[in-house]
Amino acid sequence: MTASAPQSTNEQSRRTHSSKKETGDLLDVVIVNYNTYDDTCKCVQHLLEQGEVSPENIYVVDNCSPDGSGELLMKTYSSGVNVILLQENRGFGAGVNVGSRAGRAANILILNPDCYPEKANIHLVLDHINQNPDVGIVGAELVNPDGSLQYSARTFYSCLDVLVRRSFLKNVFPFSLLNRSHLMQAHPRNSAFDVDWVMGTGLFVRRKLFCQVGKMDEGYFLYMDDVDLCARVHRAGFRVQLMPAVKFIHDHRRQSGQIWKWTRAHSLHFQSLKLFAKRHGLPVFRRLKL
Fold first, then answer.
1. Is residue 269 domain-shared with residue 148, that is, in the same domain?
2. Are residues 100 and 160 in the same domain?
3. pTM for this one?
4. Are residues 92 and 144 in the same domain?
5. How many C-alpha atoms does 259 have within 13 Å on its Cβ side?
6. Looking at the structure, do residues 74 and 120 belong to the same domain, yes or no?
7. Where is the composition biased (Polar residues) (predicted)?
């Protein structure tokens, strides 16, 4: 049986309801698509094949993709998976918020289209959250397709961190120590551990807490919204952790990491960094954690 989800003037959605699996009340997955049809389909395929997430708990939000991938996704997932088409692109965080409002499960997984679980181990995160009521956010350990770590748990930025990360200095001693500290590269990976923030590429958050802290800040169009969310979760008295036992493959094609070549990604990152500094402050230096 097919039923329409609540619609607003700037979004169109199609939802198909079927019997829920065991994880149905525990986790909704929100994927924001923007010109990434192939990646999104691959991500959804992995989730469904691994069998830990029911199709009706997957919410694909298309951010008004100009390449028509939103309409194509609507046709591809004519039943089961929820596809929501937005009539304007208001940014990544806004897309996540739309998807989160459509679901009802106790936890939300914010997942990039180019990212998917290495194997069926999402239940480990849900068990961990259930057993640790003071943990509000858990990040998966992001790895490259070759298995190398992306170091997706990090310390909050300082002005010096930003300079080092965006220049050749990150490979020059002693600044390389600062970069290593920021990426928490030396931290043991044998169990879940507390961090300042985790990347929103594969981020689990309690729904009640997500709503309590105001969801994603839509003032950020792209970048830093995950850092901002983690900062607000910390402020609410909850812990943010990385769970190394749960690995997600992140097959990203990054533009913002190019040294000295100013791109649109750099511009968006800089704008978001200024907003974060206004919201939370940005120290010149920070204590080095090796």
1. yes
2. no
3. 0.87
4. no
5. 8
6. no
7. 1-11
SS3 202: strand
The two structure tokens encoding residue 12: 């169109």
Q: How many Å apart are CA 46 and CA 72, to the nearest integer?
A: 19
Q: pLDDT tens across 182-202, in order? A: 899 989 999 999 999 999 999
Q: pLDDT tens-digit profile of 122-163?
A: 999 999 999 999 999 999 999 999 999 999 999 998 888 788
pLDDT score recorded for residue 176: 77
Q: What is the 3-state secondary structure (H, E, C) of the chain?
A: CEECCCCCCCEEEEEECCCCCHHHHCEEEEEEECCCHHHHHHHHHHHHHHCCCCHHHEEEEECCCCCCHHHHHHHHCCCCCEEEEECCCCCHHHHHHHHHHHCCCCEEEEECCCEEECCCCHHHHHHHHHHCCCEEEEEEEEECCCCCECCCEECCCCHHHHHHHCCHHHHCCCHHHHHHHHCCCCCCCCCCEECCEECCCEEEEEHHHHHHCCCCCCCCCCCCHHHHHHHHHHHCCCEEEEEEEEEEEECCCCCCCCCCCCCHHHHHHHHHHHHHHHHHCCCCCCCCCC
**For 48-63, what is each residue's pLDDT tens digit?**
999 999 999 999 999 9
Of 198, 184, 203, 179, residue with least CA distance to 257: 179
The answer to whether residues 101 and 71 belong to one domain is: yes
Look up the domain containing 93 and give its range: 11-105
Measured between alpha carbons, how far is 163 from 172 in angstroms, rounded to an integer? 13
CA nearest to 160, candidates 144, 146, 181, 141? 181
State how many domains the chain has. 2
Q: What is the reported pLDDT for 24?
A: 66
- Domain annotation covers residue 242: yes
Domain boundary among 62, 77, 105: 105
* Residue 152 and residue 274 in one domain: yes
Task: At 176, list the tokens.
Answer: 């390389």
User: How does DSSP classify residue 238?
Assistant: -
